[in-house]
Fold this sequence. Notes:
Largest sheet: 4 strands, antiparallel
Oligomer: single chain
Shape: globular
Bound molecules: adenosine-3',5'-cyclic-monophosphate
Distance between the termini: 27 Å
Order of helices and strands: EHHEHHEHHEH
CATH superfamily of the domain at 15-55 and 85-149: Nucleoside diphosphate kinase-like domain
Radius of gyration: 17 Å
CATH topology of the domain at 15-55 and 85-149: Alpha-Beta Plaits
Number of strands: 4
Number of helices: 7
Amino acid sequence: MSDNTQPVPSKDAARKERTFVMIKPDGMRRGLAGQVLSRYEAKGLKLVAARLMRISPELAKRHYEEHKEKPFFPELVRFITSSPVLVMALEGRNAVQVVRAINGATKPWEALPGTVRGDLALALTPNVVHASDSVPTAQRELALYFQESDYHPYDRTDEEYL
Length: 162
Ligand code: CMP
C-alpha cells in the first residue's frame, strides 16, 4: 500500500522570506509577547531565531537610522532602550507583508480591529511591536541582531499546508 501522507514539497519555495520582528518595551512590560507571537505562529510563520535583550543606544540609533532627522527620534531611542525587548526572525511565504498585515497600521488609531495594534495599542511610540517594512529592510535589520549561527531551521508538522 502506498503511503500518501508524505508532505508535498512547496512549488513556490522561492517566495519564502525571513522578516525581523521586535516586541517593544511596552509589549514586554504589558505581558503581550506570547499572544503576539501566537498570532504569527497561528498564521503559519515559523520562528527561526529569537533573543531577549536590552538594546544599547548605539544599536537603537543604527536600527532607526532612517528616522534620525525626525523630531521623534530622541524619544524613540529613549523608549526602545528603556527595558528588554524580544527580537525574532520569522520565516514563511511573503513573511514581510504577512507580519505587517497582522501588526496593523503604525498609528494604532488607524489600525483595524483584529490586528495587533488595532486590538492592543493606542499610542504611537509604544505601539507594541516593530516589523521590517520590506525585504531589503528585513535583511538589514536581521543582520543587526542575528548571526548565521543564531538561526535554527526545522520543519513544522503542518509544513505541507504552508
Ligand atoms: P516602528 O515600526 O518601530 O518604526 C518607527 C517608530 O517610530 C514607529 O514604529 C513608532 O513607534 C515611532 N514613532 C514615533 N512617532 C512617530 C511618527 N510621528 N511617525 C511614525 N512613527 C513614529
